[in-house]
Recover the amino acids of this structure.
């Protein structure tokens, strides 16, 4: 898995590429934690390029959401592909994390 990060003034867009599962979730979590610890608490997760999202990946997303909200920020999802959107819906995360159709819409929501 690769993690691409694009930083804007008030928002960082994080785009994991490939599988987000038990083998790669620690790397994904480390990148997100690094951003939050450096003061970047408004995060957009662009899920358009992931091949697979496991429960380990969902745990990282929920943990990051809690951390950002605790620090006055938030997490939202952008451009989730059909698989990722379905997994998030089945887990009930679509009711607690804002999901936007595009990266631009997600960034504008902040």
């Amino acid at each position: 898995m690769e993690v691409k990060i694009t930083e804007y003034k008030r928002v960082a867009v994080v785009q994991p590429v490939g599988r987000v599962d038990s083998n790669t979730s620690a790397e994904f979590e480390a990148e997100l934690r690094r951003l939050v610890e450096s003061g970047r608490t408004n995060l957009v997760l662009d899920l358009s390029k992931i091949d697979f999202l496991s429960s380990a990946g969902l745990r990282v997303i929920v943990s990051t959401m809690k951390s950002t909200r605790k620090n006055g920020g938030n997490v939202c999802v952008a451009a989730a592909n059909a698989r990722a959107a379905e997994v998030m819906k089945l887990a009930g995360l679509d009711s607690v994390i804002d999901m936007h159709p595009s990266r631009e819409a997600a960034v504008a929501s902040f």
Notes: The CA atoms of residues 33 and 64 lie 7 Å apart.
